[in-house]
Amino acid sequence: MTQLPLLTGPVRVKVMMVREEGNPVPLTIRTPADASKYADQLRDCDREVFAVILLTTKNGAIGLHECSVGTIDSSLVSPANVFKAVLLSNAGACVIIHTHPSGDPTPSAEDIRITRQLVDAAKLMDIKILDHVVLGGNVDSFTSMRESGLVQF
To answer: Rounded to 10 degrees, what is the CA torsion of 20, 42, 144, 88?
Structure first.
């Protein structure tokens, strides 16, 4: 049996953001329509995809992080998975976004419930969630929970 070396001090951990290929032009996300366009590639999936758009303090898009891929009508969402990317990228704010493979962007009761839960958790960590956008079948098909008044951000 091989023995592992004993640690003589604290282990240092380095966390780095690695950019994957994607939209090379940084965009500014000012409206739900901007968020819908930025995350357009998520619509290609045949299952629900739950993601977060990471933003600078001036709403410049840092990137898009897919938090969860679910089934045709649901996705398991963990606040830890959503906010991990926000914290590690040093984002100033974020927009939550997810797809409805049915093409109908109407938020479900569960969508509203999880959004409220995420907004409450974000407030504890001083993270700004600007909106939750539900994507429908095409770039012009989306619902903003902020604009709909379904959730207080």
So the answer is: -30
